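Extended Data, panel c. Modelled sequence:
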Amino acid sequence: MSDLNRGIMKFDGADSPAAIAVSSLLVLGSIGFLVVWALRSAYALG
């Protein structure tokens, strides 16, 4: 069992490249959305 298949990710295939790519895109996309939303709210861009 790899270290990525422990903790909150307790399912088969949790350490597969596809699962890692999907979760990283979800996290990075939400961070990007929050940064853009904060800049638009603070400085009235666009």
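The CA atoms of residues 24 and 38 lie 21 Å apart. This feature is highlighted in the accompanying rendering.
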